[in-house]
Amino acid sequence: MPSESFDQKLKKAGFSSLLEMAIHLPISYLDTRLSSELSIGEAHTIEAEIVQVSRLPKRLVATARTPLCDRPIEITIFHPKPYHGALFKPGMRHFLQGKIDRYGSKLQLVNPKKISKTGEIVPQYRCKLRQDVHRRIVESLVTVANLVGEGLDEERAALIVRAHRPDDTWLKLYRRHGGVGPKTVEALKFAEALDHFKRLGGKRVRFPATARLDGSAEPFVKRLPFELTDDQKRAIEAIRADLSGETAARRMIVGDVGSGKTMVILAAATMAYPHKAVLMAPTSILARQLYEEAKKWLPDFVDVALVTQSREAGEMQTAHLIVGTHALLYRDLPEAPLIMVDEQHRFGTEQRKMLERLVSKNRPSSKKAKPHFLQFSATPIPRTQAMMESALIDVTLIESTPFVKDISTHIVDKSGFTALLGHIRTETEAGRQVLVVYPLVEESEHIGYRSIEESEAFWKARFDGVHVTHGRDKNKDDVLQAFAEKGKILLATTVIEVGISLPKLSTIVIVGAERMGLATLHQLRGRVSRTGLKGYCFLFTHDVKNERLQSFAKTANGFEIARLDLKFRKSGDLLRGKMQSGKEFVWLDMGEDEKIVEAAKRRADGR
Ligand code: ADP
Ligand code: MG
């Protein structure tokens, strides 16, 4: 157990854990060891005896002798201060540090630093305390024994400690490589991940479940006309283990659009039977779709009800699965030990919490118990990030899709527009649908693309069945519904991110594609070809050479795209929109460090 002063010291230095302090390496090292030989152009610490001093305008020049060489060294101080006059007097000896240059036939040392104590390698930190105070704290706390006490293995601990207290060999390598070596970097990453898991793991609160749900998904699974994918089965198995436990589940299931999350939702509802489950979706169209699918696929004994603002179906009080929009939050919900939220990122934390309270309000006797909570997300995140987040919530990734979509992606500019129109004509005449997405534009902005308003007349003059919906459109759901039933071309802003199903949609055109984040592009492209139709995605841009768009065109895997997104963000490609995770790591790279993070998680879990 760390002593009190241990924690106080950490806090004083501005850190909340020892591992955090350990991964904040010195930003440089001051080497005050006396040089044993001189080489031009390198920094040295030398002993110098002043022989002669001359004051020139704006300059003090002293000639000095050093035991290291026969030739005298000329020391030049530009803009000398009064204390320089006191320092450089014939006969005085000093330890001086600076770079040795050649000046004509002489050796020169310009503006050297006087060193009071020699013989050390002194780490320099970026710190809020005084260097020496900070250094002393690090010296006393960052030790192999202490780091091992925090869960690091001896090898990694030693590598990190060495970077705080380097020896000659280490420093030489550091200088040669311009930084710490790969093994040390690995140790630092591991320590950073371990710190993250230890911290969040401590924060995670586990509640008892309001009910143990140990039904079987079998009656549902065996009625399906297709085999579930391995990833679907794995997700269902994870949920089965959750629901049959004593602890309230907190799990996020992340799967690309079309990865078959609905089947996982329905399997969970079946396992909850005869208890109730509530499923919340962000729009009434989605809620209705889920309701229809539930009725189609669930075994007959599972009663389903629908609750949206405009429509209700089934009997909510007796249903086993209640599907609805946020309208659910304003109803007198029966108690339900399982809550599921689809497209969870569309809801605020408050709404999710409210739902949780609503379905457990009648349980004053066990206030602490909570329902099982499953969230479904169609925003793929890099595996590594998923693992990092798993410190607070269990995460299951569904990385494969039941059928591989056949979508070809093309980057086109004005020169390809006529051909694009021809393609749209062919598709619509064959009874398929086309979606054209326009960027959201502020009135004052000039981005070089037509706005949706400016384009509407163009499309309507050339095609029938053109429907239009804007972001702020109140009738958005109605327009989408009408388009789904009988439309040919839908003009929209990016708002239609939610996974409504448009089975006849074969083509999407994204105007000004380079302005959008890869995650958004991926969501949009995922609209087409949802039922195995041959799909087309056209990225309309003035910047056809755009590297980000080109890599996007090459892959369809959402998890791969999440990785790419990260890579391009890091390389400074400007993107609109927010970072998925606000957290910044010093050493860890969410795109690359999967293995390290996995190992650190195992260590944190004591495995
Ligand atoms: P998501 O919600 O993850 O975007 P859905 O659950 O809507 O995806 O599934 C997309 C489509 O794939 C649906 O038509 C669904 O019936 C179908 N589907 C789901 N799982 C399978 C499977 N294992 N094999 C074949 N088709 C599947
Ligand atoms: Mg879905």
From TrEMBL:
Residues 416-572 form the Helicase C-terminal domain. The keyword Hydrolase applies. Keywords: ATP-binding, DNA damage, DNA repair, DNA-binding, Helicase, Hydrolase, Nucleotide-binding. Residues 242-398 form the Helicase ATP-binding domain. PANTHER family: ATP-DEPENDENT DNA HELICASE HOMOLOG RECG, CHLOROPLASTIC (PTHR47964). GO terms for molecular function: helicase activity. This is ATP-dependent DNA helicase RecG. Signal peptide: none annotated. InterPro entries: DEAD/DEAH_box_helicase_dom, Helicase_ATP-bd, Helicase_C-like, NA-bd_OB-fold, P-loop_NTPase, RecG/Mfd. The keyword Protein biosynthesis does not apply. SUPFAM superfamilies: Nucleic acid-binding proteins (SSF50249), P-loop containing nucleoside triphosphate hydrolases (SSF52540).
